[in-house]
């Protein structure tokens, strides 16, 4: 098929996520055909730097030889087998490797429950916390605390603890009630715990960075303070590391940076290096042990998915973790994140149309000055970046960069230069001298 044929068929048959289809029909968006490293090519042969890691998951880039080989090797064995009543080597090996790299501290994550995306991993954590309290006899503990502007996915349970009104308010009649708190406000959180402590099953939060909110950063020490309050009031702590996990913040998991180990931790996105859908909910032995009992006691965790722990996905995930080790990814990343910060400060922050640049590790949010809603300025910036050879993504009028950890320094320079020029062109701002030189 030609690009025109594919585009016509897409417009007649496909409904895209988080997309106003009326606007989509008027645009000739690229149709991505292949990828290599940090570059994507469309069906017309145009190349684009993947500035958002294909929605934050291709940590080692596209077509990494080790990941390709792992999936091919598993295809020669078995592509899928259920984990309901059975097991298989890749799921077992991956669980061991995941627990080995999980955050360490005053407690330990010892069990892995597989699913297939971040929403379900968080939904599982919520249900585990709820049922765990019920088994213990804490029948009043039915509520969850969540942060304002939080995002934990799009299934009913995860939306119930979502704090982005644009995404979540419409669905409130379908959801369970939670207790919303302001990120960074330790005193406010303690007040909620004092008033409702006996009713709260768990608190759920994205550690250090709220990604879908526009890369909002928490103040230093907040995560540790939340952990201590949860312990004091016997509230379980769920950390959503779906976006922040696997090196995004500079450490394997964001929790490590404040020495925090949650009771439950959800992971997805970078887990398979962007190859196949896979997620996991990690739990402490204390949580796991609460579900043990005789068959007739009905303590079983009644939850599962058809593709839970899919062997191909597990094989990709094992290879992904091995690449972290073989290529010393986190150590090499430190220099690149320092360079990224310098480039943003020199080329993007000085733009008159940029209100703020927020960054932790490779997670970057560039907040534009206020523009009329109908101008869709964030989207206009992404179109300008695309025309210059880079894929970036807006969250409203916040431009998000989250390149693969494997990005080279030259590619990083090009990505930031394109982003600066795209913002200048779309908003009418003047490029700073450093950006003009880079361009």
Can you characterise this structure?
The protein has 439 residues and is of the alpha/beta class. It has two domains: 31-60 and 328-438, Aspartate Aminotransferase, domain 1 (Alpha-Beta Complex); 69-326, Aspartate Aminotransferase, domain 2. The protein has helices spanning 3-13, 21-24, 53-56, 65-75, 89-101, 118-136, 156-160, 165-168, 186-196, 222-232, 285-290, 311-326, 329-348, 377-387, 409-427, 433-438; strands spanning 32-36, 39-42, 47-50, 109-115, 143-147, 179-181, 200-205, 209-210, 216-217, 236-240, 264-267, 279-284, 354-360, 363-368, 390-391, 393-395, 398-401. It has a seven-stranded mixed sheet with strand order 4-12-11-10-7-5-6, sandwiched between helices. The protein has a four-stranded mixed sheet with strand order 1-2-3-15. The protein has a four-stranded antiparallel sheet with strand order 13-14-17-16, with helices on one face. The radius of gyration is 22 Å and the shape is globular.
Summarize the helices and strands and which ones pair or pack.
Layout: H1 3-13, H2 21-24, E1 32-36, E2 39-42, E3 47-50, H3 53-56, H4 65-75, H5 89-101, E4 109-115, H6 118-136, E5 143-147, H7 156-160, H8 165-168, E6 179-181, H9 186-196, E7 200-205, E8 209-210, E9 216-217, H10 222-232, E10 236-240, E11 264-267, E12 279-284, H11 285-290, H12 311-326, H13 329-348, E13 354-360, E14 363-368, H14 377-387, E15 390-391, E16 393-395, E17 398-401, H15 409-427, H16 433-438
Parallel strand pairs: 3-15, 5-6, 5-7, 7-10, 10-11
Antiparallel strand pairs: 1-2, 2-3, 4-12, 8-9, 11-12, 13-14, 14-17, 16-17
Helix pairs in contact: 4-12, 5-12, 9-10, 13-15, 14-15
């Amino acid at each position: 098929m030609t690009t025109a044929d594919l585009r016509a068929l897409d417009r007649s048959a496909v409904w895209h996520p988080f997309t106003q289809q009326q606007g989509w029909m008027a645009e000739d968006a690229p149709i991505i055909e292949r990828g290599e490293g940090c570059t994507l090519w469309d069906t017309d042969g145009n190349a684009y730097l993947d500035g958002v890691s294909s929605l934050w998951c291709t940590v080692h880039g596209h077509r990494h030889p080790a990941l390709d080989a792992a999936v091919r090797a598993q295809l020669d064995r078995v592509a899928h087998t259920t984990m309901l009543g059975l097991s298989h080597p890749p799921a077992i090996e991956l669980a061991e490797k995941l627990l080995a790299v999980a955050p360490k501290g005053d407690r330990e994550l010892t069990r892995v429950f597989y699913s297939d995306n971040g929403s379900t991993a968080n939904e599982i954590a919520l249900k585990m916390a709820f049922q765990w309290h019920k088994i213990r006899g804490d029948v009043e503990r039915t509520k969850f605390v969540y942060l304002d502007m939080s995002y934990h996915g799009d299934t009913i349970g995860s939306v119930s603890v979502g704090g982005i009104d644009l995404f979540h308010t419409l669905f409130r009649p379908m959801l369970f009630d939670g207790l919303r708190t302001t990120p960074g406000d330790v005193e406010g959180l303690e007040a909620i715990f004092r008033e409702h402590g006996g009713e709260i099953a768990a608190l759920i939060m994205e550690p250090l960075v709220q990604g879908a909110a526009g890369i909002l950063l928490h103040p230093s020490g907040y995560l540790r303070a939340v952990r201590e309050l949860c312990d004091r009031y016997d509230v379980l702590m769920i950390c959503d590391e779906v976006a922040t996990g696997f090196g995004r913040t500079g450490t394997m998991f964001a929790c490590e940076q404040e020495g925090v180990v949650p009771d439950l931790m959800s992971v997805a996105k970078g887990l398979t290096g962007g190859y196949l859908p896979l997620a996991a909910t990690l739990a402490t032995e204390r949580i796991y042990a609460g579900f043990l009992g005789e068959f007739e006691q009905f303590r079983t965790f009644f939850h599962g998915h058809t593709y839970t722990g899919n062997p191909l996905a597990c094989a990709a995930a094992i290879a992904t973790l091995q690449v972290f080790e073989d290529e010393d990814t986190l150590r090499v990343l430190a220099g690149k994140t320092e360079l990224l910060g310098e480039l943003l400060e020199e080329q993007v922050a000085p733009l008159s149309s940029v209100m703020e640049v927020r960054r932790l590790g490779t997670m970057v949010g560039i907040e534009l000055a206020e523009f009329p809603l109908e101008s869709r300025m964030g989207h206009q910036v992404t179109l300008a970046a695309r025309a210059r050879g880079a894929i970036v993504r807006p969250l409203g009028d916040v431009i998000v960069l989250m390149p693969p950890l494997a990005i080279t320094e030259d590619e990083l320079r090009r990505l930031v230069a394109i982003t600066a020029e795209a913002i200048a062109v779309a908003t009418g701002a003047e490029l700073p001298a450093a950006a003009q030189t880079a361009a």
